Structures are given as C-alpha cells and as structure tokens.
Amino acid sequence: MPLIYKICPRALWRDAEAAGRFDGAPVDLADGFIHFSTAAQVPETAAKHFSGQDDLLLIAVDEAALGETLRYEPSRGGALFPHLYGPLPLSAVTSVTPLPTGPDGRHIFPGSIKG
Predict the structure, then answer these.
(1) pLDDT value at residue 115
(2) Is 106 a member of any domain?
(3) What are the Cα distances from residue 84, in Å, to 14, 35, 95, 102?
(4) 74's torsion region: left (phi>0), alpha (psi -120 to 50) or beta?
(5) InterPro entries per the record (predicted)?
(6) Which domain holds residue 37?
(7) What is the distance between the alpha carbons of residues 29 and 33, in angstroms, rounded to a whole number?
C-alpha cells in the first residue's frame, strides 16, 4: 500500500485522537489543505519546516484510503506533493511513530525512510 506522511507535534496529534479526526496544523488550516510528503520527501520536509523541534510524531497514512480528497500538486521546486482537501480520518492512519532528533539536531526516521 502506498504511504504518505505527516509530521505533527505530539500534543496536536493527541487532540486529533480525542476528536476522532485530524483537521490539520495551523499551516494546513491557513492553506486550505493538509500538507503531506512522500517517503522520499519527508526528510527534507522535516529539515525545512521542523528543524530543531522535538516531541514530533511521524504519521503514516494509506493514501488509497483518502480517495478523491487527496491530490498531488506542485510545491517545493515543482515537485508533486500530496495535499488532502478535507479532514484526515484516523482510520486511514497505519502508524504513529516518534520522530526524535539525533545529536546533530537532525530527525531520526524509521528504517523504511532514508533521512
């Protein structure tokens, strides 16, 4: 199953779990869609937008479960990024993994993602 990823502060994700859905982070709400990254894109997303931040989670999502509300659109450097136009149903989430930082300040990704 193809997966896409969302980096999320732990507290914000806990709120989503309590609500039963994720409506997005402040940047998502401002842009009108939830930003995601592919496995190849997520390390750069972490470095660019979450540098030095701790207490983050890496949310893996089954993109097929999102249907037509998921669109790949040009973003950073013209690359196509997944954008979700609507709330993220928690039923589409396949895993929630801590995203710690290493001694060099870079985030440490699970083995399936090359950071």
Answers:
(1) 53
(2) no
(3) 20, 7, 18, 30
(4) beta
(5) DUF952
(6) 3-98
(7) 6
Q: Give Rg (Cα) of the chain.
A: 13
Which residue's structure tokens are 């994700």?
13
- 41 within domain boundaries: yes
How many domains does the chain divide into?
A: 1
CA neighbours closer than 13 Å in the CB half-sphere of residue 105: 6
SS3 of residue 47 by DSSP = helix
The answer on pLDDT for 113 being more than 70 is yes
User: Per residue in 33-46, pLDDT tens?
Assistant: 999 999 999 999 99
At 51, phi and psi to the nearest 5?
-55, 130
Give phi and psi for 66, each to the nearest 5: -95, -15
CA 112-84-77 angle, to 5 degrees, is 70
